[in-house]
Design a protein that fits this description.
heterodimer, A: mainly alpha, B: mainly alpha, 13 helices, about 65% helix, elongated
C-alpha cells in the first residue's frame, strides 16, 4: 500500500517537474505564435505602444489571445499543470504546434515501431545473456568465463551510437546481410529490418545481464538444493536450467525495469541511425522544432511507463523467490 | 545491516572462498540490496564473483591498469593543450580535398568538408572530457552533499532527499537530458550541468549509504560524546570516509558522462556552434550511408578513439573500485 502511494507521488512529481521545466525554461508562447509573442498587446490597447507588425493590430492581438486561451498560457504554471493533467487524463494530449495534428494521433502512429524495437532488443539481450551466463557460470573462472569477462567489458564500453554505426557499416553496407534502412511493406520485412537496431540496443544489455546472471548462478550453485539435485544424479544442464536458473534471475529481473529506461534512451539514438520512424526520432525532431506539446507528451509517456514498470518489477520478486513473500 | 555491501566491507575483504553457509548469508544481504541496486542504472560490470580468486587482484593494479592510465593522461594532455599542438586548424574547411583517405598530411584523412579528421579528433577530446569531468564533480558536490546530510540527520530530511533522488531516477537519463537541453540554449555550461544533474542521484545514493554505515561507528559516537557539533562531525569525521568510495567511482562515472555527452552530440543536442567539436558530432557527421560507404575513416577514427577512451575509463575505474573494495556498481 505504501508503495502505491509512493508510485503516485513519484508520478505527480515527475510530470510536474517535466511540465515546469518546459514552461519555465522556455517560453511556450514564442513557440505557438512566433515573433507575435513579443507584441505588447496591452500597450496597444492602452494606446501607449505602436504596432510594428504588418497586419492590423487587432488581428495579431487576437491571434495571441486565442493562443493564450487555447494553451491556458494566461494562467500561472501550477494551474496550467492541473488543467493539462486533466486533459491528459481524458486522453487529450494537446495539439502539435507544427502540423496541428493531435498529439495522441502522432503517438499512436509512432509508438508501435518503438515497442517492436524495444521488445526485440530485450529478446535479443535475454536470448544472448541466458545461455552465455549459464555457460560462464558452469565453468566459472575457466577460459570461456575469463574470455567472456573481457568481452562483456568491451561491450559495455561501446557507446550505443558507435556500436550502431559500426554494425550498420559492417553488416548492412559491407556484407549486406541486413537492410540498411527501415522497411514497412510487410511485417516480416519490418522485423527483419529491425534486427540490426535491436542487436545494437540489446548486445550491451546482454553483457550486463550476463555478468549479473553469472554472479547469482555461482552463488546459487552452492546451495543445498543444488547439491541435492546433483546427488540425485540429474544431468548438469537440467540442474542448471530447471533448478538453478529461476532463483538466480533476481538481479536480472531487478535491472530489467531499469534497463528498459536505458533502452528507451538508447532508442532515441538508434532510431536516428537506422531511420526508424518511432517515438525516439519523433521526440528529437520535436525538440529541434520546439514542438512543446509533443515533447512533453512523449516525456510523460516514457517517464510514466518507466515508473510503472519498476513498480511491476517489484511485484515480480515474490513470484521468483517465494522466500521474499514470507517477509 | 545495510551497508557493508556498498562500501569497504569488512567481512568480505579477506577473500576466503565462501562456504555454503556464507553463501546463504550473502543471499540475505543480496535481497536487501535490491532496494538500492534497483535505483541504479545497469551497464557496469557487477561486483566481484564469489568464487574467491579476487584477493589476488584486489591489492594490485596491474600492467593494463597503467596502460589505461597512460592513455587517459595522453587524452587529458591533448584536451588541455589542443590549440597549441602542431596540428591543422580543426575548423578550416578544405584543408585537403573532401573525403580524402588517411595520408601523411592528414593522418586520419579528411571529412566531407575537407577538414582534418586527426585534428578534429584531438580537439573533440576537449568537450567530451571537460563535460564529463565537470558533470561528475557537480554530481559529487551536490549529490554527495545531499546524501551525507540525509544519511546523517535521517528523518524528514532523509525522506525528502530520497524522494528527490527517486524522482530524478524515474526519468530515463537521456530523456531528462533532452528535456533540459531542449529548452535552454546549448552552451558548454548548460550541457555540463545537464549531465551533472544526471549524476546527482546515483552519487547521492552511494554517499548516503556510506554515511549510514559510518554514522554508527564508534569514532562518530566518540566525537558526539566529546561535544562535537553536527557540522564538525560531518566535515571532520564523515566526509573523509565517504569521499573514498565516491572518489573510487569517479572514473566510472566519467565514462558514463562521456558517453552521455556523446549521445547528446550525436542527436545534435550537445554544445552548439561550429567550433564546438565533439566526438559524438563527428561520428554523426560521417554516419550518412554515402559517407559510411565511401569514407569510412571519417566515422571510424573518432569511434575508435572514443571507444578506447571509454574503455580506459571503465577499466581503470573498475580496478580502482576493486582496489578500494567498493562493492556498489552505481551509475
Amino acid at each position: 500500500m505504501r508503495r502505491v502511494v509512493l508510485l503516485f507521488a513519484v508520478l505527480f512529481a515527475v510530470t510536474f517537474l517535466g511540465f515546469a521545466a518546459m514552461n519555465l525554461l522556455g517560453d511556450p508562447l514564442v513557440n505557438v505564435v512566433g515573433v507575435l509573442a513579443e507584441l505588447d498587446c496591452e500597450g496597444i490597447e492602452a494606446g501607449t505602444a505602436e504596432d510594428t507588425t504588418v497586419d492590423a493590430a487587432s488581428r495579431d492581438c487576437d491571434t495571441v489571445a486565442a493562443a493564450k486561451a487555447q494553451y491556458h498560457l494566461d494562467r500561472p504554471v501550477p494551474i496550467r499543470y492541473v488543467l493539462w493533467l486533466g486533459d491528459m487524463a481524458t486522453g487529450d494530449f494537446g495539439t502539435s504546434f507544427q502540423n496541428d495534428q493531435p498529439v495522441s494521433h502522432v503517438i499512436r502512429e509512432k509508438l508501435p515501431e518503438t515497442l517492436i524495437l524495444l521488445t526485440m532488443a530485450q529478446i535479443v539481450s535475454l536470448g544472448v545473456a541466458i545461455p552465455w551466463g549459464v555457460i560462464a557460470a558452469y565453468r566459472a573462472n575457466r577460459a570461456f568465463d575469463r574470455g567472456s569477462t573481457v568481452a562483456s567489458f568491451g561491450l559495455l564500453s561501446v557507446p550505443n551510437f558507435a556500436l550502431g554505426v559500426v554494425l550498420l557499416y559492417l553488416l548492412a553496407l559491407r556484407w549486406q546481410i541486413f537492410p540498411s534502412a527501415y522497411e514497412s511493406d510487410n511485417f516480416g520485412g519490418l522485423v527483419f529490418s529491425m534486427v540490426l537496431p535491436a542487436v545494437t540496443l540489446g548486445l550491451p544489455l546482454a553483457a550486463s545481464y550476463q555478468r549479473l546472471l553469472r554472479t547469482d548462478l555461482i552463488t546459487t550453485l552452492q546451495e543445498d538444493f543444488v547439491h541435492m539435485a546433483r546427488a540425485k544424479g540429474l544431468p548438469p544442464m537440467r540442474i542448471m536450467f530447471r533448478h538453478a536458473l529461476r532463483p538466480s534471475m533476481f538481479s536480472v529481473v531487478t535491472v530489467f525495469g531499469v534497463s528498459t529506461g536505458a533502452l528507451i534512451g538508447g532508442s532515441l539514438v538508434v532510431e536516428q541511425i537506422f531511420g526508424i520512424p518511432g517515438i525516439g526520432r519523433e521526440i528529437v525532431t520535436a525538440v529541434v522544432r520546439d514542438d512543446f506539446p509533443v515533447v512533453l507528451a512523449i516525456v510523460m509517456l516514457v517517464a510514466t511507463t518507466f515508473v510503472v514498470l519498476n513498480f511491476l518489477v517489484d511485484l515480480l520478486y515474490s513470484w521468483l523467490d517465494p522466500r521474499v513473500r514470507a517477509r | 545491516m545495510s551497508a557493508e555491501d556498498l562500501v569497504t566491507g569488512e567481512g568480505q575483504a579477506t577473500g576466503r572462498p565462501r562456504t555454503p553457509v556464507e553463501g546463504k548469508a550473502s543471499r540475505e544481504r543480496l535481497l536487501w540490496r535490491f532496494r538500492i541496486v534497483r535505483l541504479v542504472r545497469p551497464g557496469r560490470v557487477p561486483d566481484d564473483s564469489p568464487a574467491g580468486d579476487e584477493s589476488a587482484v584486489r591489492r594490485r593494479l596491474g600492467f593494463s591498469f597503467w596502460l589505461a592510465v597512460v592513455w587517459l593522461l595522453i587524452m587529458a594532455f591533448v584536451a588541455a593543450f589542443a590549440p597549441l599542438l602542431p596540428v591543422a586548424d580543426p575548423t578550416k574547411v578544405a584543408f585537403g580535398g573532401p573525403r580524402e583517405p588517411p595520408s601523411l598530411d592528414a593522418w586520419f584523412g579528411t571529412d566531407a568538408l575537407g577538414r582534418d579528421v586527426f585534428s578534429r579528433t584531438l580537439h573533440g577530446a576537449r568537450i567530451s572530457l571537460a563535460v564529463g569531468g565537470f558533470a561528475i564533480v557537480f554530481g559529487m558536490v551536490v549529490g554527495g552533499g545531499l546524501g551525507i546530510l540525509g544519511g546523517y540527520f535521517r528523518g524528514r530530511l532523509d525522506q525528502a532527499v530520497g524522494f528527490v533522488f527517486f524522482v530524478l531516477l524515474s526519468f530515463p537519463a537521456l530523456v531528462l537530458a533532452i528535456l533540459i537541453t531542449a529548452t535552454l540554449e546549448r552552451s558548454m555550461l548548460v550541457v555540463s550541468l545537464t549531465i551533472g544533474i544526471l549524476a546527482v542521484a546515483p552519487v547521492g545514493l552511494l554517499a548516503r549509504a556510506s554515511t549510514l554505515v559510518f554514522a554508527e561507528r564508534e569514532f562518530v559516537s566518540a566525537a558526539r560524546v566529546l561535544g562535537a557539533k553536527p557540522g564538525r562531525i560531518i566535515v571532520r569525521e564523515l566526509l573523509p570516509n565517504v569521499v573514498i568510495p565516491m572518489g573510487a567511482l569517479t572514473l566510472l562515472g566519467m565514462a558514463v558522462a562521456v558517453v552521455a555527452e556523446g549521445s547528446l552530440a550525436f542527436l545534435g543536442l550537445s554544445v552548439a556552434g561550429e567550433d564546438a567539436i565533439s566526438w559524438g558530432k563527428m561520428i554523426v557527421d560521417g554516419a550518412g550511408l554515402r559517407d559510411l560507404q565511401n569514407a569510412t575513416h571519417v566515422t571510424m577514427f573518432p569511434v575508435a578513439v572514443m571507444f578506447v577512451t571509454v574503455l580506459s575509463l571503465n577499466f581503470a575505474g573498475d580496478r580502482i573500485r576493486q582496489y578500494f573494495d567498493v562493492k556498489e556498481l552505481a551509475f
